[in-house]
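Lab notebook: predicted structure, single chain.

Context: the supervisor wants predicted structures on file for every construct in the current expression panel, including those that have not yet been purified. This is the next one on the list. No modifications to the sequence; it matches the entry in the shared construct table.
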Amino acid sequence: MIAEAVKVVSPSPVPEGLLAAVDAYETALLANDVATLDALFAPGPDTVRGDGTTLLVGHDAIAGFRSGRAVIPTRRVAELHVRPVADDAALVMASTEEPSSGATGLQTQLWQRLDGDWKVTAAHVTLPRKDRPVGLIEKAAHPLPAAAAPPVDGAVWRVVGTPLVAASGSGALDGTTVAVKDLFAVAGERLGAGNPTWLAEQAPRPTTAPAVSALLGAGAEVTGIARTDEFAYSLAGQNAHYGTTPNPAVPGGIGGGSTSGPAAAVALGQVEVGLGTDTAGSIRVPASYQGLVGIRTTHGAISTDGVLPLAPSFDTVGWLAREVGPALRVAEVLLPGASAGPPVRAVVLPTAEGHARPDVAAACADRRDALVRSGLLPAAEVVDLAPETLEEWFAAFRTVQAFEAWAAHGEWITAHPGALGADVGGRFAAAAAVTVAEADVARATVAEARARLREVLDDAVLVLPSSAGGAPARDASAAAVEAERAGTLRMTCLAGLAGAPAVSVPLLRTADGRPAGLCLVGAPGTDLDLLRLAATLEGAA
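Prediction complete. Output recorded below exactly as produced.
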């Protein structure tokens, strides 16, 4: 027990049962017993946890952060100070140290007795200040002194600073913090692509990608470079080398990818904006799983110079935020230009929507109908598309994507056998088998699909789910994750085929309460109009 092994200092008697609860917390922490830790934090939206950079609000956000923890502490409590503030409340401050290094830290918690049980309702953690374990995190080129270095999660971040890159100008984004996906060039930093073997061979980039430079010029600052699924060839947010990013909205659920690190950084409140890429849903899927706003921009509207490619025929720059407002401010910087005008028609594509789980499809239909009745969306028109046509389009999309992915990275992958995780490695192995003739046939089908979809989207907005379901569990089988991916891709590929913008807004819920996105797909060039429509829908939610 704490009382037996640790010096306890209190000016008045310690409330009954409190030390036992603190002891249970410390035991669970060292054992990484997530279930017990979750139970010891008070349920509900008012519980808070802070550290050097992040304030998590609500039990679910704290549990989601904890579920992605990669480094298990080895600390011990050296001294405990208890300050009772009421019969059923006490402030507990624990001085901690790392036995191997002697580094010291501090933990402060407000415990309250709720329905007879002691629970943490507020906590602040300062990690040990010497030899702080940071797992696979790199140190920034110009970090603060070690005593001020913030705690970081290696599944979310590759390198962080304070900031990593300061703003180069002033404007609409003054003070906005940004996480940059590890596919964008940042001057003076290496580009890691989610793979440690690739990273080890890279030299610091001499210049910064134009998309990043534009944000810096408008007053934003880059907090750090965040994780990506390997070479962006995944939608799961599960990296075989660096771990699974946390999902604060669904404790125990995957976060989605491949813009996995920026999405988690936004959802955890560590930054306001996550800059990433979307080829087949790599922004829309994490937005859907984590209850975020995510935009894939019109193909070619924002330069992809300085961005590591996956499939240039479909690759786009995009970003995530917790609300539409910050996403729209970024759009007004990166996508200047006149508005094309709001859509005058809403369209429904049942053939694609049928690949969503029944509860998600039903939630989408209900929300869409409600928005039409309220006048926020124009009346929806059903577009007839044969199932075999969608399958043909989807197969062509995947074939072109695979062919271009192998063209971009096949030489390096061949020279580094075993460097990829099993799931991404399997996709690249299949990509290697695509022939030039197969790619040419697929490109012709993509061109036909693009022409047809642009006809459908003319003056219209396509409304459908952003993902087939909510976030799968972290321990779900590979088959279950792949099934979710297959259903999702048949919907997300439509924007890629059309070269069109798409915005995911967190307006849906699965049958078991997990967030899912409502996706708005517009005609090319209507990015700003889609975000303004999304802001209206968000305000009415």
